Amino acid sequence: MAIAAEPLDAVRRAAGTDHTRPGGAADEVDGVRPALVAEPGTVDEVREVMRAAHRAGLRVVVRGGGTKLGWGAFLAGFDLFLSTARLDQVLEHAAGDLVVRAQASVRLADLQRKLTPAGQMLALDPPEEGATLGGIVATGASGPRRLRYGTPRDLLIGVTVVLADGTLAHSGGKVVKNVAGYDLGKLFTGSFGTLGVLVELIFRLHPLPAAAGLAVAEVVTAERTGAAVRALSASSLVPSAVELDWPDSAGRGMLSVLVEGVAPGVEAQTGAAAGLLAEHGKARVGDPGEVDAAVAALGALPWTPEPEVLGVKLATVPADLPVALTALWEVAGAHHLDAQVRGHAATGVLTAALRGGDAAAQAAFVTDARDRLALGGATLVVRQATPEVKKAVDVWGPAGDAIDLMRRVKRQFDPDGVLSPGRFVGGI
Amino acid sequence: MVDRDRLIREMRQIIGDAGVIHERNRLRTYETDGLAAFRVIPALVVLPETTKQVQAVVRACHQAEVPFVARGSGTGLSGGALPAADGVLVVLSRMRAIVEIDYDNQRAVVEPGVINLDVTKQVAPRGYYYAPDPSSQLVCSIGGNVAENSGGAHCLKYGFTTNHVTGLEVVLPDGELVHLGGKGPDPVGYDLAGAFVGSEGTLGIATKVTLRLLRKPAAVRTLLAAYDSTDAAGEAVSKIIAAGIVPAAVEMMDALAIEAAEAAVHPNYPDANAVLIVELDGPEAEVSHQFAEVERLCQEAGSTTIQIAQSEAERALFWKGRKSAFAAVGRISPDYYVQDGVIPRTSLGAVLRRISEMAAERGLRVANVFHAGDGNLHPLVLYDADVEGEEERASELSAEILFACLDLGGSITGEHGVGADKKQYLPKQFSADDLDVMQLLRCAFDPDGRCNPGKVFPTPRLCGEVPGKRRVHPVEAAGLAEVF
Q1: How far is A268 from chain B (nearest CA, A)?
Q2: Residues in chain B within 8 Å Cβ distance of A163
């Protein structure tokens, strides 16, 4: 779409001409190319860019590390890619208070490296390599340790955001316990850039565990898997993660229980976990030599960015894990797709890669799997798909009876609908 | 404008005569919540028993353009359930069913009037509990906990109400019923349940709440350490945190708070200028290893006495002194303000020195009770209302303690909420734009500003306006004038 030169010039001036460029092939999202990419270097510049874009009615998509741009529904179109890449400073690490304040584009891995000498960590471990704090919060991304520590919403204690019209707003703060004002951090977590631009984030931190250990078990059926996970959840063990890896429906699955803490505690808990698992499959305590590599591999997605592979995320109450697994396999089979499943078994969050079918088969899989899962209240969200598939299905699925309220929230924060239009649930 | 008699008739049709209170002498029962300094007699009190009744009541208010305020047990300490003089008070204490307990998924679905501790009592035989434990948990309701995002002593490790609510059924201010979140993880769409928890009753009325249940820890160990000074006790807390230990709770009381607790409930605390209660919980091996370390660190920080709870009864006694501290202060002072502020934990020494200086300047005493692990202070400002000018000085001191918290990078409230009490201080913590943007959320839920009006925000936002332009809301302009 052609955009008049004047408004683009205003954006260029706001971000500085050295930090704007025309959109190229590498900037395409769902095959849509933005007219301009801007990389403002300060929060004030972000505000200026947003003001200029707002005046011109430009549609804006925010980019952090760019690792999850394929998530979300098909973008109707956009004009300006606002990259927060230059907002990459850790502003404050208050070790004694277990709090860190950082700009949006600090990469999680870089932050962890900074925190390690103090024996601390941000207890988030989403698998996407190169992900930034802003992107993780904007998408609500999580990993295996969410079982113990929660998701971004639970660890975010303060945010600074820039709205579509350039308004700057804060919520929360630098103290973990704080109920002053509304919690905009929760609202913005998982909002996919549809409400505003996250520019600064404050998180509570946790001590790095001194030791880690694994108990692993081979499981042969969905029911046995469910029983094993239930036994763990009903015990007084406190694992950091319980992960499932099931490469193909004809084969077997592997359950891994990650325990972290002080060495004597880890030893006792991995032993107890292996004991519980042994009633449901071939179980053992992981060899100390293999633990580091195995822990690092936990949480990996079942797909790489292969465009022809359909990637979905399925969320269910944990007790329905066997039902969900069976549904995935059966519906995939019915459409001649191979399903590879991984996920956070004890929290009920699974990811599946579907291979081997065309766009029609993939779209039919999404629709049918959702129908099967709807009874138990589970949700299925498309995470990776070709533009063809994304256009053919509802990427998010139904958002329930609060969808109109969500639309009203969107209208209040972004009345002109210029932020990531169409990317979120219900066409938001 | 609707006449009051017509509204009474409508409410009686919805709930029945017994659930509608309109006689002035009976309305007075509801004129205040846990913050007795604020009193407003509502036009009408209704006690619905079902979600449908709440919906009908709210719809009737909406149609009549009458404000309404939800109230649970009324234990809040910021005037959050203070009625609107021209409005309806919706009391939810008759909605106290535990609707469902789902052990397999570790969830409980409860009505808003259910008492916090009753959830734990219900699931305890199966080895589960509900983690948030405000000191008022014997009487406070889950609906009120949701409104205030209540904390408690154990939120250092386990988080607040917001971390333990996964789903809400909410009656919106126009009577529409919505479901936010649910039992399962990662609901699709905006995290409106997260935005609702802690919104102090300004976004709607929760009629069902889905709670996380936790497995009771295998081991719980508690110690009480006495110190010559709050500085030394603070040093012990720093050492524990620096050692990478996250206790379930770390509580501190100063000499005056100890004196009050001894006078009231006789917990047999050692004679000291500060006591710490440190509690660890979790798997046995982990707890016993770390407990030994905590004991050593407490000693290193100069503890004069360390008592280790040898039984559940002894542990309960340690906690009794702490949990009854607010009320206990009544034993040593005729009147007192309960304050709730937050500082970065490492500023504990600095804030205590400031409080002590400011108190001395005004010739007042302050008893201090803290959630020391997370920097949440509860200074209790002692005064005698019969002494000329003392109440005023105490009120000033109480406010200045909050400003000291803000100077140190903290917050004006950690768990009691802003409510009616602190709304004038909110602009000291947040900019006008911050508050305006927060109220965009209010506009989406309650564009007419009828749900718990006049709370949290000092200046209501007229919805639909562009940010930055504020006008006095019609409700506010009308003041307490009779709408009926």
Answers
A1: 7
A2: 437, 467
